[in-house]
Design a protein that fits this description.
The complex is a heterodimer of chains A (about 350) and B (about 300). Chain A is built from 15 helices and four strands. Chain A is mainly alpha-helical and about 350 residues long. Chain A has a domain of about 220 residues. Chain A has a two-stranded antiparallel ribbon with strand order 1-4. Chain A is globular and about 70 Å long. In chain B, helix 3 packs across helix 10, helix 6 runs antiparallel to helix 9 and helix 7 crosses helix 9. The interface between A and B is large, with 44 and 41 residues.
């Protein structure tokens, strides 16, 4: 072997290869196509897609938390709620709700800073339930402010004067922008040096610590990013529903959705939540007239996946075809670089 | 989901009573409510102490037990307390099976998987109850028990239901502690909890013993579900709130300590009732704040673990 390797061509390490270049082209084409949809299709379809984007953005953020930082949160609805209420308040002060979306993300991030110092000291089950209790506490605190609508909810102002079709299109584009930002953000984060830290934590936390990864800092950054993402999603929810109610915006159901989507699609990859979201909506739409059955079935599938196929469907597909649409890892090649095809 | 079981003690806070007596009354009712929380929490505490598993479907199993008890009571025409004789053994079997076929399998994948799997179970149980039994809230027909109470003095009365639940809770915690410390099987449970490998070397069937621990925990969940159904109304979505209260009681008292869980339940109950005395909407939040304060200041709980 050593003789052979001496004669072997030098190793090359690349991050991308042709499948990745194709997926970049496909990704841009998909975004352009999706962005043009409001001109082509009925608002029913764009309305449904808003919900798809909302779920995909949530699942992508939850996947960063659980899949990379090992933080199982069942309390992300805390930041969904904060985002929604930031938009409610800013719109009440006269700001255009669409322009309030970045502030919703920022507001969630600001709230997450002090919270992170409490919950990130805790491990596993403590962390999970503490995040849940924080979300419940936020809900109970919001109920104390009649100006926020208390238990009955509040209507979003500032969108009454806009033509409904235009409003639907703006909402759709906002949701598309948020989900593209979430996926692209997660992709760039994972490709950065920091992503290497996260991947190391995902694979072996103690090992990562021993080679000098600053675990606490990495987890805090991921927690804050995920909170900002949830806040942006919360703003989309209030804008698409035109009202907000504490009981439903702070509902643990949001965490259930994110977890099911990520588990079914595959935790620890960017592609997983995309597949999971497609399956979620396929089941929800095909079982639409059967009440909560889709949730029972999704929950059952998620439970079985977690037990027998922990890397989800994408783990299965990606391994089978050696496929990565979002290459955040490295490939090793033998042999000289083909001329003009050096991608890194 | 947001409704605390307040009806039982609200009734006894008589209007017009002296303010000092109101506070005494609130503390007494809080302690009694704490008994209910401790009964909810001791199964969670046992499973965490032995298997390091937090069952996020704990509250939903309790709600399921309450529905089962309702079916047993109406089907067999027996008084509410007797339903425990049917539901608790049934739940012990369910617990053993859930442990052997679901939780153990998740534990083998990773400890975090148990959280995801039990959370999934929680949502499945809630929605299964919702689709089969509707969202209407139910309560267990406790007949004359519901309104009966002991009048301690002019302003302070103790409801039979709360007294029975509190006594049950103390008895269950004491019995569990005796079982773990004095019996051979209890010793096996502690051994399996301390060191799986060493326990199996000396002949303990660890998976079976874990199943037994889960069976006991689920039997207490059944009792808690019935107690809850007597205290207040329940609906398919009531589980998560029960889980949170149970977890809070366990953490306040110290994870893995059974007497600590009883103390934690009482502290939570008193905090909620006193909070509600200040402002009707502040009760549950006061409990959450006590819990978060304990997590921030003393994450190991107030009473150190003694199960293991």
């Amino acid at each position: 072997m050593s003789v052979a390797s001496a004669a072997a061509p030098p190793l090359r390490v690349t991050r991308s290869r042709r499948s990745a270049a194709w997926s970049a082209v496909l990704g841009v084409a998909a975004v352009v196509l999706l962005a043009s949809l409001p001109y082509v299709v009925h608002t029913n379809i764009t309305g449904l897609l808003v919900n798809v984007f909302i779920l995909l953005a949530l699942a992508t953020m939850w996947n960063l938390l659980a899949g990379y930082a090992g933080l199982i949160s069942v309390g992300q609805q805390a930041y969904v709620g904060v985002g929604a209420y930031v938009v409610l308040v800013l719109a009440g002060d006269g700001l255009n709700p669409y322009l309030a979306i970045p502030f919703a993300a920022l507001g969630a991030l600001v709230v997450a800073v002090p919270t992170s110092f409490l919950v990130l000291r805790l491990r596993n089950e403590y962390f999970a339930i503490a995040t849940w209790v924080v979300a419940e506490s936020f809900r109970l605190i919001v109920l104390h402010f009649p100006s926020l609508g208390g238990g009955t909810g509040a209507n979003l102002s500032g969108l009454g004067g806009i033509d409904p079709v235009l409003r639907q299109a703006l909402t759709y584009w906002s949701a598309l922008a948020v989900v593209v930002a979430a996926i692209l953000g997660a992709y760039l984060l994972l490709r950065s040096r920091f992503g290497l830290d996260l991947t190391a934590i995902r694979d072996n936390e103690i090992g990562a610590r021993s080679v000098g990864v600053r675990i606490a800092r990495a987890k805090r950054i991921v927690y804050l990013v995920a909170a900002a993402g949830a806040g942006a999603v919360g703003s989309l929810l209030i804008i698409s529903q035109l009202n907000v109610q504490a009981g439903s915006i702070f509902n643990v159901q949001w965490s259930a959705y994110m977890i099911f989507v990520a588990l079914i699609g595959g935790v620890g990859s960017i592609e997983g939540p995309i597949i999971g979201t497609l399956i979620f909506f396929f089941l929800q739409q095909s079982l639409a007239d059967r009440g909560a059955w889709y949730l029972i079935i999704l929950g059952g599938i998620a439970v079985i996946m977690a037990m027998y196929l922990p890397r989800g469907l994408w783990g299965l597909i990606g391994d089978r075809f050696d496929l990565k649409l979002f290459p955040v890892g490295y490939w090793m090649h033998r042999g000289p670089a083909p001329a003009g095809r050096e991608t890194e | 989901m947001s409704r605390p079981p307040t009806s039982a003690w609200r009734k006894s806070a008589l209007p017009g009573a002296g303010s000092g007596v109101i506070w005494v009354n609130a503390v007494v009712q809080g302690i009694l409510l704490g008994g209910l929380y401790a009964l909810f929490a001791c199964g969670l505490s046992l499973m965490f102490g032995v298997m390091r598993v937090v069952n996020l479907a704990h509250g939903d199993f309790a709600v399921l037990a309450a529905y089962l008890a309702l079916a047993v009571i109406t089907g067999l025409h027996i008084p509410v307390l007797w339903s425990a004789l049917v539901v608790a053994p049934l739940f012990a079997v369910v617990g053993y099976l859930v442990q052997r076929f679901i939780i153990q399998r998740s534990l083998d994948v990773s400890p975090l998987t148990t959280l995801l799997v039990t959370f999934g179970l929680s949502i499945v149980i809630q929605n299964a109850l919702l689709t089969t039994l509707s969202a209407n809230s139910q309560s267990l027909p406790s007949g004359s028990l519901a309104s009966a109470s002991v009048q301690v003095n002019g302003q302070l009365s103790i409801g039979y239901v709360s007294a029975i639940v509190f006594a049950t809770s103390v008895v269950v915690v004491g019995a569990l502690q005796l079982f773990l410390s004095r019996t051979g099987l209890g010793r096996q449970v502690r051994a399996a909890s301390d060191d799986q490998e060493a326990a199996s070397i000396v002949g303990v069937n660890v998976r079976h013993v874990y199943g037994i621990a889960a069976a006991i925990a689920f039997a207490t969940v059944a009792l808690a579900g019935i107690a809850f159904g007597m205290y207040s109304s329940f609906d398919p979505a009531a589980g998560p709130q029960r889980l949170i209260f149970a977890f809070e009681a366990v953490v306040i008292g110290g994870m893995g300590s059974l007497w600590g869980t009883l103390v934690g339940g009482i502290i939570l109950g008193v905090a909620q009732v006193l909070g509600a005395q200040v402002d009707a909407g502040f009760g549950v939040l006061a409990g959450h704040l006590v819990f978060l304060a304990v997590l921030a200041l003393r994450p190991s709980g107030l009473i150190p673990a003694r199960i293991t």
